[in-house]
Design brief:
Blueprint (H helix, E strand, L loop, with lengths): L8 E7 L6 H9 L6 E8 L5 H11 L3 E6 L4 H11 L4 E4 L5 E2 L3 H12 L3 E9 L5 E4 L5 E4 L2 H9 L10 E4 H5 L14 H9 L5 E12 L13 H20 L4 H19 L6 H20 L5 H12 L1 H15 L5
Parallel strand pairs: 1-2, 1-4, 2-3, 6-10
Antiparallel strand pairs: 4-9, 5-10, 6-7, 6-9, 8-10
Helix pairs in contact: 8-9, 9-10, 10-11, 11-12
């Protein structure tokens, strides 16, 4: 009786201005306990030493493929990787992050044991000063079918909104329907995942932290201030809510909650900057329209209910409360 051939995982790694992190990231992937890998390094026109380092790494491991392309952003780089991926499963790793040695073995085992379409793990926030924080780790395995997966994703407390802590069956992304990332936006993981979750895949979640996310390094996109791309990524949630109103009425409250969280986060970021007065008014209009729904729902946290009430009725008091909050506990996490 012959041995069963293990399936191949294509790991897509976009590369741009990360020469201080790239080798450690790629070596962590190469040294996975699951060895059946196709590692696709997509040099997105990086102006530093990354293009040469990609070629050097490819010489060290025959499983590594390198794509060099003009700079087009994270979505474009991931799409270029998807276009050449040949694996049975597809995963993504950002090139300044790291993965635990058994992450892909864990994700493959989950897919195959539960006959699922997407598997997920939790993650660890890592700071450059050595601090670490495991996010939501509880070691439980959960499965979601039908609209339950979309519900869990919209709620966002258990199902993280990223692609880098997930493994996808290749046929979901490169089958009859080609699924790609939207170019030119921030938060590109959300529209990508939501479109997938709307197809009602079977999703399995491992409650262990297997991915190591470098928290807001200097120069990273997530460490920059307000931008039109950030505003667009927040406004995206308005379309999600409207889509739920039209097709998933039982999920509307989860979409409203998520939109409120993002909108309030944007409001906090804008502050009193008059350049963004239209965006601030947009947030307040949404909160005014939905604050009763938010306040009356058991799905919404007390801090969200209070924030919605103050923003709708007395924004000056909300700003005062935020100042006090920041002095006491630091930046708000809404």
């Amino acid at each position: 009786m012959g041995m069963t051939t293990r399936k191949t995982v294509s790991v897509i790694v976009p590369v741009y201005k990360v020469e201080n992190y790239l080798r450690a990231c790629v070596e962590g992937i190469c040294n996975q306990t699951y060895q059946e890998l196709e590692i696709i390094l997509v040099d997105d026109g990086s102006p530093d030493g990354c293009p040469a380092l990609c070629e050097e790494l490819a010489k060290e491991d025959p499983r590594i493929k390198v794509i060099h392309k003009e700079n087009g952003g994270l979505s474009d780089a991931r799409n270029a990787g998807l276009d050449v991926a040949t694996g049975d499963y597809i995963g993504f790793v950002d090139s300044d992050d790291a993965v635990e040695a058994d992450m892909f073995e864990c994700l493959v085992d989950l897919l195959e044991e539960h006959e699922a379409d997407i598997s997920c793990c939790r993650y660890t926030r890592v700071w450059e000063d050595g601090r670490e924080e495991k996010v939501g780790e509880d070691h439980e395995v959960r499965t979601y079918v039908g609209t339950e997966a979309l519900k869990a994703y919209l709620h966002g407390t258990v199902m993280d909104p990223f692609v880098w802590n997930k493994l996808y069956k290749a046929e979901l992304l490169n089958g009859e329907t080609k699924r790609r990332f939207i170019k030119g936006v921030l938060g590109e993981d959300n529209p990508f995942n939501i479109e997938l979750f709307k197809t009602e895949p079977k999703v399995v979640l491992c409650g262990e932290a297997k991915y190591r996310y470098l928290q807001a390094r200097t120069g990273a996109i997530t460490s920059s201030g307000v931008s039109q791309k950030k505003i667009d990524s927040v406004v995206f949630w308005d379309g999600v809510r409207r889509d739920c109103e039209a097709h998933y009425p039982e999920l509307v409250i989860y979409a409203v909650r998520r939109q409120a969280l993002f909108y309030i986060g944007l409001y906090n970021m804008i502050g009193k900057d008059k350049a963004y007065k239209n965006e601030a008014q947009m947030v307040r209009s949404f909160i005014k329209e939905h604050q009763r729904t938010i306040r009356g729902s058991t799905e919404c946290e007390k801090v969200l209910k209070l924030s919605a009430l103050l923003l709708a009725k007395a924004p000056w008091l909300y700003r005062l409360m935020m100042k006090l909050y920041k002095k006491l506990v630091g930046e708000a996490k809404l």
